[in-house]
Amino acid sequence: MGVTQLGYVGIGTTRMEAWRDTVTGVIGAEILDPVAGDDAMRLRIDAMHHRLAIRPSDRDDVLYAGWQVESAREMDRLVAALDKAGARPQEGDAATCADRHVDRLVRFTDPDGYANELYLGPEHGTEPLRPSLPVSGFTAGTLGLGHVVRHCRRYREMVDFYADILSFRISDRIVWADMDGTFMRCNPRHHSLALLNESLGMGSGETNHVMLEYASLDDVGRAYDRVLRRGDPVIMSLGRHSNDATTSFYFVCPSGMGIELGTGGVLVDDADWQVKTFTTTRIWGHLLPHERNGEARG
């Protein structure tokens, strides 16, 4: 079975107040009340306790990604497979489980050294979502947070690792210029993880971007307007992707990486899905800065 969703992401930052301003000024997620003795800012977008944790750090990047597992038996099977693959799985202690609001947690690293966590028993709330901006909501639930996209030094090895060990399925590939990306799913969401063969210059760290999906196109458009009014750096203008049909835009978050805000992503039916290779990332839009400014590609 493997993992079933991207449950949560922890992001490190040297700019906590700038992150709070971005959440309340652009994204609109609910900011949970702080916990005594804990300096993390946790963001809620659905019934799960939190999906994002923004943490003070000297490292501006994704610090860990949490992948949900449905049963203790499957967790044990995956831990054994990770150990055999040299991924160094380590059982999380009670304090770490409490911090993530899960019953059990196992840490491991993938072939490129990214920190990941398998978890069981996520805590869910019963109170309605209280977004920090007037948005209609986020598409998460059993589909998970959204997706994370990572630059890879060991690209082929990384694809094989997530497919063979964690049972991700390949949805499709995009090959353009000298870039190569593999888009991988663990539920009907088109991709919860994408792996790129090199940095595209979209961020200062190792993570290309993290994506959140809104419930409506109007939420995306209003967020785009907010980014333009604020003058936040836009990585890609509003546009629509070729492979998952998401309408979205990308901007630079306070941790230096990209945040994609979009809606309308394809849901995959494993029974009739066919893996394709695309030669462009976009149907329309998604213009890079040099394309918007009429500059020659350098």
Distance between the termini: 45 Å
What is the number of strand segments?
Answer: 18
Cα radius of gyration in angstroms: 18 Å
Structural class: alpha+beta
Strand order of the largest sheet: 17-10-11-12-9-13-16-15-14-18
**Overall body shape:** globular
The main pleated sheet reads as: 10 strands, mixed
Poorly predicted sequence stretches spanning 5 or more consecutive residues: none
Helix content: 10-25%
What is the averaged pLDDT score?
Answer: 95
What percent strand? 25-35%
Protein described:
- By secondary structure, this protein is of the alpha+beta class.
- It has helices at 16-27, 72-84, 94-100, 155-164, 217-230, 289-292, and strands at residues 5-13, 30-31, 41-44, 52-56, 61-68, 90-91, 104-109, 115-120, 146-151, 169-176, 179-185, 193-196, 207-213, 234-241, 247-252, 258-263, 276-278, 282-285.
- It is globular.
- 43% of the residues are buried.
A few lines on this structure:
This protein has helices spanning 16-27, 72-84, 94-100, 155-164, 217-230, 289-292, and strands at residues 5-13, 30-31, 41-44, 52-56, 61-68, 90-91, 104-109, 115-120, 146-151, 169-176, 179-185, 193-196, 207-213, 234-241, 247-252, 258-263, 276-278, 282-285. It has 298 residues and is α+β, with helices and mostly antiparallel strands. A hairpin with a 5-residue loop joins strand 7 (104-109) and strand 8 (115-120).
